[in-house]
Amino acid sequence: MEIAPAEFVSLLVLQSTSFCNIDCSYCYLSERSKRARMDELVIAAVIERLLEANLVGSRIAICWHAGEPLSLPVTYYERAIELIRELLPPSCEAEFKFQTNGTLISPDWCELFRRHSVQVGVSVDGPLEIHDAARKTRAGGGTFERTMRGIGLLQKTGVDFHVICVLTANSLNQANTLFDFFQRERIRHIGFNIEETEGVHRSNLISQGSAPEKFRHFYREYLGLAAGSSEYHRVREIENPFQAMFLATRDKTRNQQVTPFAIVTVDVDGNLSTFSPELIGTIAPEFGNFKFGNVLHHSIAEMKGSVPFRNALQRISGGVDLCRRSCEYFPVCGGGAPSNKFFENGALASSETEYCRAVIKTTADVLLDFITVPSGIERRVTLGAAASDAL
Amino acid sequence: MSNEHGNQGVPAGGSAVIFGDAFGVTATEGAKQEIQSKQQFREKLAAIKTAVGHGEMIPFEVDGQAWVASEQRNVGVAQWQQTWHGPSRNTFEESQG
């Protein structure tokens, strides 16, 4: 069954620059040494193409990522935000996001973030020994101190942020160390990614097949620490699975990574992709290297009709059908991530991946264990009146 | 039954699972045991659905926003793992349609 396109784009990922000022060992981007930047003409064309195709609803999240966005000047984004707001209709609320390594954050950046209510995500893998093991400068030095200096500036200026922490084979054994670090640094919103096989990177963690058991152990331990803490501690891998489980009971599951045009990615040259953003530029002739057209030259309608897009949609839909038929976790997942399927299984029309086993299934299983444990973990109730009213 | 904020609505005999104030559910002891007794994940989901339907389990989000309790919402899963709809909002997008 072919998956229907999204009514509106939810997340627009813009690669303002392919360049990154650091050189992480697990990075999936092949062109992070190139100093290209997205032209204003491309930014304008992206918005115009989406409007032309009626893909802009009442809200759109715009995320600058896939390169280090802060390697461009603040003024670049001032102009880009202004341009985007000029082009979008007043009925559409644009929400801007930056995913950054944090090393270039300055007071000027903080001012921009505050002025435009930007959601900032900073990549931090833990304390110095863990962080610097993978997140290195181009000369091979560590980046921890510069990243933490950036986080300090965000905290000092009151910019709300979350961190993305990549878990490696090493750090998966150190839940306690990571928890203590985040508590000590007053980092309260955390998303955990396991080191994945994506793009040009092959993950040992994934290839060795040890990720599910290691993540299960880590997650159970971390959950216990978070639950036992008297301090606010918000973890994406607690919230998302819980939400997904309750959505599943209401048949509301909708997987953005398999839904055409729910997520749109545009690279620095204006090439457009959809589905998992990591796919763009991957060598795959059958799918046009997951570049379905260029916003400077092609309409969305032309891209939707292109052979590479049709091939990708057909295979991804086939993969989701396989998941639906074979996996009891389908109601909380909706068919996995095409990027993981492609990079791990070598086929979009496939089902389970190591990422599924390690993250999707594990988080659901462990959280259900926590729901059912008796009073040790039950501390207090913060149910809002709205919740009971709505039910 | 009131919580520390004075809110009403926890089922009689209900209990809370709170993760650092961030997220949790309330469930009766019976509902918890029912879920615990299931071996297969799909059976656990069915038990959750029943418990929610009977008002024996109440999912909610931070600050009392009952996002999942509202039928008006149609939200998505498996968002891109490289980012997160962070602290100030729901993790998932509401339907705009």
Describe the structure concisely for a colleague:
The complex is a heterodimer of chains A (391) and B (97). With 391 residues, chain A is of the alpha/beta class.
Please give a handful of descriptors for the protein shown.
A: 391 residues, disordered C terminus, B: 97 residues, alpha+beta, three-stranded antiparallel sheet, globular, disordered N terminus
Report what the structure shows.
The complex is a heterodimer of chains A (391) and B (97). In chain A, 42% of the residues lie in helices and 12% in strands. Chain A is built from 15 helices and 10 strands. Chain A has helices spanning 40-52, 74-87, 107-115, 128-134, 144-156, 175-184, 204-207, 211-228, 236-248, 300-304, 307-326, 330-333, 338-345, 354-372, 385-390; strands at 11-14, 59-64, 93-100, 119-123, 161-167, 189-194, 234-235, 263-266, 271-274, 293-294. Chain A has a 10-stranded mixed sheet. The longest helix of chain A is centred in the C-terminal third of the chain and has 20 residues, at 307-326. Mean pLDDT of chain A is 88; it is low at 372-391. Chain B is of the alpha+beta class. Chain B is built from 2 helices and 3 strands; from the N terminus they run ββααβ. In chain B, β1 and β2 (24-28) form a beta hairpin. The longest helix of chain B is centred in the middle third of the chain and has 13 residues, at 41-53. The termini of chain B are far apart.
